[in-house]
Write a structure and sequence with these properties.
Blueprint (H helix, E strand, L loop, with lengths): L2 H31 L5 H9 L5 H21 L4 E2 L3 H11 L2 H11 L5 E3 L12 H13 L12 H8 L8 E2 L14 E2 H4 L18 E2 L5 E2 L5 E3 L1
Parallel strand pairs: 3-4
Antiparallel strand pairs: 1-7, 2-7, 5-6
Helix pairs in contact: 1-3, 3-4, 3-6
């Protein structure tokens, strides 16, 4: 192979790399600045009347976070760890034209909503929720194996006192902690304290598989194709 061909190949590879990096950056900016339909606020307020406007704005921030994770994961399944954010996502999908346009600009593909479970047990995290945990931690500069606090997507149901929400704790296996035995264990999602196996689907149904064959779980929906 001649020097000219090698040089041209290298230049092409660099150009392609920066093209896709620039495209992803534009997609993430679109997610950050997208204004959800105003009627979504009414929909969320109807289901959770105790939420203030500031609370609902936080739900939208968390939904943007979720779309960030889906963008990073490409076609791999990302579980939805929050009930209130899942409600917002589901209501957004009902605005079919808005949602289709959003997906095209933010992800370059249509993101489907597939009902599934949050975790198999409080201490057995499946592939989809592990991926959500890892990506959410990285986004917020948290060590996923030794977290000092929970990412927004994993904290919001508790923070907003969502009655049917999913609660995660850093210390739910510490017998001296007030959170002992309460909710799902974040340490087990990140495998900081060891995880149960996650290669088999839940016997209760609702699970979905990503393209790599990993079993995943989530509160009310999973992004995936």
């Amino acid at each position: 192979m001649s020097v000219e061909v090698i040089a041209l190949t290298g230049i092409t590879a660099v150009a392609v790399y920066y093209f896709y990096k620039g495209k992803q950056s534009r997609q993430l900016d679109f997610i950050d600045y997208y204004q959800f339909p105003s009627s979504l606020t009414r929909k969320i307020s109807t289901q959770y009347p105790h939420l203030s406007q500031n609370d609902i704005d936080l739900v939208f921030d968390a939904l943007r976070d979720y779309f960030h994770l889906c963008n990073q994961a490409k076609y791999r399944t990302v579980s939805m760890p929050s009930q209130v954010v899942d409600v917002a996502w589901h209501e957004f999908i009902l605005f079919t034209r808005n949602y289709q346009y959003f997906c095209k600009k933010a992800l370059g593909r249509f993101l489907h909503h597939t009902p599934a479970e949050v975790m198999r047990t409080p201490t057995q995290a499946q592939a989809g929720i592990k991926r959500a945990w890892h990506l959410a931690c990285i986004k917020e500069n948290i060590n996923p194996n030794a977290p000092l606090y929970l990412p927004l997507l994993f904290a919001i149901d508790s923070r907003l006192n969502i009655e049917d929400g999913f609660r995660y704790s850093l210390n739910c296996q510490d017998r001296s902690s007030p959170d002992y035995g309460n909710g799902y264990c974040a340490a087990h999602i990140g495998c900081a304290s060891g995880c149960g196996g996650d290669s088999e689907p839940s016997s209760s149904g609702g699970g979905v598989f990503s393209e790599s064959g990993e079993s995943s779980g989530c509160s009310g929906g999973c992004g995936g194709d």
